């Protein structure tokens, strides 16, 4: 067996078969024939007559031509019939997040690693290994969960599940107290909480940062909202804000974060 396989040249085909490449077929050939799986399933097909410029119709493998083996020789292309028989194949790009290697018994033989088979005899193990690329999982998640403003993390992967965005955290004792209370309560409930407490940060910049890094949930706490008994909430994928009642905000957030 020659490896890798290469296409024969026009001259090699003509010298071996006596016809040009556009006129060769399996009927009457004396050389070894290996059929592609798709070709092996064909019936009443047209094939070259092994004479330049001539072809045969209604060729069938069993009655007109013989092949010694069936193999996957042809690369799949878009539009091919699906192997399951349902529709056609569509080719898309993807990210390999895990892989499996078939190791055979090279290492198990060297280690004399055996088990008893069903007949009570030693049998060398067939080995394999697998791996998952952690960084590739992250890249795949971002590729599937984002918008023009940045990442939209799934809860299971989010570095922080909720961000607390205060207005005038270092100027308003009421805002600071409520933000600290919410941070501690949510943290004690088992959530990863990001409190945006930078001293000179502007509200617009903080909201943009929260969207960019993809925190799934956010609340905005300010004096005006607290005076009305409200805290502003938004899910990262939502387009509108939602007002939460201050008195039961912890319960409301816990329910939203647990979804």
How would you describe this structure to a colleague?
With 259 residues, the protein is an alpha/beta fold. Helix content is 28%, strand content 24%. It has helices at 10-17, 37-40, 61-64, 106-110, 134-144, 173-188, 203-213, 223-227, 249-257; strands at 34-36, 45-48, 55-59, 69-71, 98-104, 114-116, 122-124, 127-132, 146-147, 150-151, 162-166, 193-195, 217-221, 230-235, 242-245. It is elongated.
Taking the sheet with the most strands, its summary is: 5 strands, mixed
Count the E strands: 15
Overall pLDDT confidence: 92
Order of helices and strands: HEHEEHEEHEEEHEEEHEHEHEEH
Distance between the termini: 58 Å
Helix content: 25-40%
Residue ranges: pLDDT <50 for 5 or more in a row? none
User: Strand sequence of the main sheet, in spatial order?
Assistant: 12-11-13-14-15
**Shape verdict:** elongated
Specify the structural class: alpha/beta
How many individual helices? 9
Q: Tell me the strand percentage band.
A: 15-25%
How large is the radius of gyration?
33 Å
Summarize the entry for a quick read.
The protein is elongated. The protein is built from 9 helices and 15 strands. It has helices at 10-17, 37-40, 61-64, 106-110, 134-144, 173-188, 203-213, 223-227, 249-257, and strands at residues 34-36, 45-48, 55-59, 69-71, 98-104, 114-116, 122-124, 127-132, 146-147, 150-151, 162-166, 193-195, 217-221, 230-235, 242-245.
